[in-house]
Amino acid sequence: MTTLGFIQNIGGGSLVVIILVVILLFGAKRIPELARGLGRGIKEFKDATKEIQDDIEDGIKGDSKKKS
Fold first, then answer.
1. Helices within 1-68 (DSSP H only)
2. Choosing a second label site near 43 at 20 to 30 A (CA), which of 8, 32, 49, 52?
3. Domain assignment present for 56
């Protein structure tokens, strides 16, 4: 399992400070919008990677049928 270098050194207190800074910068009303946008972006990325993976698997299956 790989992690980013800076994530493994973050403790509970640091997370609280980071969350407070985010709330101060963006405001409590804006955070749900940001989270929704981030969620949509992650979903689109996963869908795109799944589609590419399916295309590759179909190509491999098509190649094996041609050889038979």
1. 12-26, 31-67
2. 8
3. yes
